[in-house]
C-alpha cells in the first residue's frame, strides 16, 4: 500500500488544497481511513505492467471484458470521416471538378461554411484558392489552402516532464459529455502499451459515478488510480495524485475533471485552482491542458474553447466524435482561430478509436 508522506521543504504560498480525507490521512495507515482515498492499480493481460503496485481482487473487480470498448482494433480515420466525406466534401469535390465559374466559387464558400469552417475562414480559402496559378486544378488549390491552415504534425508528440523525478501531467478539460473520461481511457491504453506507467487522477469529484467510470478505465488499462470521496476538492485530488506519482516514479499523470459550462465562473475558477496546484506541487512543470471538444457542437465549441483558454491556458485540443458529424471542417476552424494544435481525434467509441492527429492524412481522408 502506498504511504502518503507530507511533502518536505515545500511551503506553498497558498496552502495545499485538501479535502477532509486528506487532512486526516497524513502520516496515517489506518485501514478505515484509507477507504476514503483509493489508490489502486490493476493490470490487464494485453498491457505490460511496469509498476510494483500489486492489485487486489477487490480493486480489479470493476474490470469489464465483454464491453465493446475493450476492442483495441486501431480506429480508421477514413471510416471515421465517412459522414463528412459523403456530406459537404462530396458536394465540394463535385463542384471543384467541373472547373468552377464565379457562381460556383460562391457555392464552394457556402459548402465550406456548411462544413463548419466558419464564414471568415471559408471566404479567405475561396479568395486565395481561386487566384492560385500554381495548382493543376481548382480542387488542388482548395486542398492546398486548407492544408496550409493546419499546424504541422508532431508525429511523436508526448507530454513532457518538467524535470527528473517528475511525472508529465495532462489535465483534461471541457464542457459536459464531450468525451473527456473516455479519451483519458483511450490515451492511458496507448501509453500503457508503450510500457509507460500511468496514474489517473479522479478530479471529477462532482458525481460518484464519474469516479467509478475512471476507476474502470484504470483497471482496464493497468493504470494506477487516485481518488477522494465524492464532492472533495478536485485540486486536492490533483495534489495528492502528483504526490503519489512522484513517490512511485510514475511517468504520466492524467487528471479527469468534471464537465463544466464556460459561462459558470465559479466552476472556471475551480479549474484555474487545479491548474495552479500543478505549478505549485511541480514547479517548472509545463502540464498539457487538453480541451476536449465534441466535433458535433461545431462553431459553438470554438467560443467555449476560447474561454477555457483564457482561464487555464490550453496547450492542445482533442476533437472527439468526428465519426458522428458531417462537419469535419471544424478542425480547420479550431486550428486557425485558436492557434492550438489538435493533438488527437476521436473517431468512435472503441478503445482504439483515438488517433494522433495527422494533418496530411486528415486532408487526404476528406478528399480521396
Ligand atoms: N461516437 C463517438 N462517441 C464518443 C467518442 N468519444 C467519446 N464518445 C462517447 O461520448 C459519451 C460521453 O463520453 P464521456 O467520456 O463520459 O464524456 P465526459 O466529457 O467525460 O462527460 P462528463 O464527465 O459528464 O462531462 C460516451 O458515450 C462516449 O462513449 C468518439 O470519438 N466517438
Ligand atoms: Mg467524464
Q: How would you sum up this structure, described in words?
A:
The longest helix is centred in the C-terminal third of the chain and has 17 residues, at 265-281. The chain has 368 residues and is α/β, with parallel strands linked by helices. It has a nine-stranded mixed beta sheet with strand order 1-4-3-5-2-6-7-8-9, with helices on both faces. The protein is built from 16 helices and nine strands. Helix 14 runs parallel beside helix 15. The protein is 44% helix and 12% strand. The model is unreliable at 1-12 and 20-65 (pLDDT under 50). The chain starts with 19 loop residues before the first helix and ends with a helix. The protein binds guanosine-5'-triphosphate and magnesium ion. Guanosine-5'-triphosphate is lined by residues 174, 176-182, 204, 210, 259, 292, 320-321, 323-324, 346-349, 353. Magnesium ion (MG) binds next to helix 10.
Which tags fit this structure?
368 residues; alpha/beta; 16 helices; 9 strands; elongated; disordered N terminus; binds guanosine-5'-triphosphate; binds magnesium ion
Give a concise summary.
The chain has 368 residues and is α/β, with parallel strands linked by helices. The chain contains 16 helices and nine strands.
Amino acid at each position: 500500500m502506498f504511504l502518503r508522506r507530507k511533502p518536505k521543504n515545500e511551503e506553498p504560498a497558498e496552502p495545499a488544497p485538501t479535502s477532509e480525507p486528506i487532512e486526516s490521512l497524513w502520516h496515517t495507515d489506518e485501514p478505515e481511513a484509507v477507504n476514503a482515498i483509493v489508490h489502486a492499480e490493476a493490470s490487464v493481460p494485453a498491457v505490460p505492467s511496469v509498476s510494483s503496485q500489486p492489485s487486489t481482487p477487490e480493486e480489479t473487480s470493476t474490470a469489464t471484458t465483454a464491453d465493446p470498448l475493450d476492442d483495441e482494433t486501431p480506429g480508421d480515420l477514413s471510416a471515421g470521416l465517412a459522414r463528412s466525406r459523403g456530406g459537404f466534401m462530396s458536394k465540394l469535390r463535385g463542384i471543384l471538378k467541373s472547373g468552377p465559374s464565379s457562381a460556383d466559387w460562391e457555392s464552394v464558400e457556402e459548402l465550406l461554411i456548411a462544413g463548419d469552417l466558419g464564414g471568415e475562414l471559408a471566404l479567405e480559402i475561396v479568395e486565395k484558392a481561386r487566384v492560385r496559378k500554381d495548382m493543376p486544378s481548382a480542387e488542388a488549390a482548395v486542398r492546398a489552402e486548407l492544408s496550409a491552415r493546419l499546424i504541422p504534425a508532431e508525429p511523436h508528440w508526448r507530454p513532457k516532464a518538467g524535470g527528473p523525478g517528475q511525472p508529465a501531467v495532462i489535465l483534461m478539460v471541457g464542457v459536459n459529455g464531450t468525451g473527456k473520461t473516455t479519451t483519458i481511457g483511450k490515451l492511458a491504453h496507448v501509453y500503457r502499451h508503450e510500457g509507460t506507467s500511468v496514474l489517473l487522477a479522479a478530479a471529477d469529484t462532482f458525481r460518484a459515478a464519474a469516479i467509478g467510470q475512471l476507476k474502470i478505465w484504470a483497471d482496464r488499462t493497468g493504470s494506477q488510480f487516485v481518488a477522494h470521496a465524492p464532492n472533495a476538492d478536485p485540486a486536492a485530488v490533483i495534489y495528492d495524485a502528483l504526490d503519489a506519482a512522484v513517490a512511485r516514479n510514475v511517468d504520466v499523470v492524467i487528471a479527469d475533471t468534471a464537465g463544466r459550462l464556460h459561462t459558470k465562473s465559479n466552476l472556471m475558477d475551480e479549474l484555474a485552482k487545479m491548474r495552479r496546484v500543478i505549478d505549485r506541487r511541480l514547479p517548472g512543470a509545463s502540464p498539457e491542458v487538453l480541451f476536449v471538444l465534441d466535433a458535433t457542437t461545431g462553431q459553438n465549441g470554438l467560443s467555449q474553447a476560447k474561454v477555457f483558454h483564457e482561464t487555464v491556458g490550453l496547450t492542445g485540443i482533442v476533437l472527439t466524435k468526428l465519426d458522428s458529424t458531417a462537419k469535419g471542417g471544424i478542425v480547420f476552424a479550431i486550428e486557425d482561430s485558436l492557434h492550438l494544435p489538435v493533438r488527437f481525434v476521436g473517431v468512435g467509441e472503441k478503445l482504439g478509436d483515438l488517433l494522433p492527429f495527422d494533418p496530411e492524412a486528415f486532408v487526404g481522408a476528406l478528399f480521396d
